[in-house]
Amino acid sequence: TDNDTFSNVFCEKSKKLMDVHLFALAAQYYSLSNLGVSTPLGALLEALRGDNQGTTGIKTDEFMNNKKSHEVQVMSELVDNIAKYCGIKQVIDIGSGKGYLSSFLSMQYNLKVYGIDSSNTTTNGAHERNRKLKKHWRAYQSRARANIENQKLEKANDRPVQSETHCKAVSEDLLNKTGSLQEQDQVTIQDLVPSYGFTEVATSETGKNPVVDLVAQTQSDEDKLSEEVLAILNVLPPDAVEVFALSQCDGGELCEEEKEQRKIASLQAKASKSSESNLYFPLTSCITAETELSDIITDLEDSMMVGLHTCGDLAANTLRIFAAKPEIKAVCSVGCCYHLLSEQFENQEDCSEEVWGFPMCQYLKDKGWCCGRNARMSACLALERVAVGQMLPTESLFYRAVLQVIIEDIYGVTKSDRHVGKTFSKSSSFTDYVRKSLKKLELDDSKVPDSCIMDYYEKYKHRMNELEAFNMLKVVLAPCIEVLILLDRLCYLKEQDNIAWSGLVKLFDPVKSPRCCAVIALKKQACF
């Protein structure tokens, strides 16, 4: 059995690591890629489209090198396909931040997007960024389309000239038949991808003909345009902020005055922008498992929830809201910051009334499962980046480890609510690092002379290689801990009676975006 195979990794009595190679093999065996529990992105897109037309012509290696652009490009295409499949036009972006994903979904895919973030400053920035983006959107599209048309003309000049009559006939045929592309026979998704449990219906395959080829070419041009449009998202300054008081909320509950203000603002926005099909509204609110979306979004309708790197408990709460609210027909959530998850069994306290970030599923709750902060911190590490040569910052980790010894020895402090943060990059030496860190922790640095600080450095510097090896073992183990957290969320969804399909899907290149796996689910009544 697997347990027998890996039984010699640790000493049974001392619990010490005995076989590093076997440890690495065991970690690989229990990683997401090896367990066979994830759904391929291509298969999911094919099932959602249902017309067997494949991808839209955009390949991963065609994306810009920018991390955020890569994430927005891939996730927005998937969200658009889910929205079309479920017949919905409203998207709620939880933890929307600066609005990269929200803006792109709104403008490129004509979806009505509400971006909700707990930071009012971030929401203001997203609103102003979106305003500037819209201002340049049509001009940019026209310019990009003109470039595409010029390229077509250049290619056409290299080919034999077709008769004017034939070209006119094809154009008229396209106009007459494009509308009929929407009137296809229906087949079940189960027939297309039977292994993923879909039972709803979708459009069938379109027959091969020149008209479809022309439509496909037009779509391909739009895809090229969408790639160019992503550049705009990075051109606009992220700190562009104007006063914008659509909504403010310091907590999870809204007062009646705030609700009325939201309602008026929503009505005014709808009246002033009723001619636009693509709308994006940045809102500020603190989202919890008990949040009533109808208090935040006054015109809430059938919609889907999305989250691109929702932090800590926010990812878990997104799934809970999805399961509880009938208006939410689908969810696509990519979590991050596992170290900030709250754990039910971490402090061994009986708080059954609390809502925790981990565990979510009843199976792990019954077992009283606990990861602990160190394991959750490890889950945030990026094995794929280390594998391609992006090594861990060993020196800064060494600085932090020795600082911990100094704090415990000299000040007797083992826990603190304060954080050292990114002090290493701002320090000229180890002594400088220690002094700046002590001030951040509000500890009296006059207690420690420079000579004492350097004595600690000299005492432990020969163990730097040891520290590096330890952290490499943590990196190897990281995917196992992450998959435990992801499977807990998937099992929670599997336990719900109102969900037709749920799965884990690897969306991003893990070197560009280490937190690359999405939890996706569709309600039973969502699609028909």
Automatic annotation (TrEMBL):
It comes from Nycticryphes semicollaris. SUPFAM superfamilies: S-adenosyl-L-methionine-dependent methyltransferases. This is MET25 protein. Residues 67-344 form the Methyltransferase domain. Pfam families: Methyltransf_32. InterPro entries: Methyltranfer_dom, METTL25, SAM-dependent_MTases_sf. The gene is Mettl25. Transmembrane segments: none annotated.
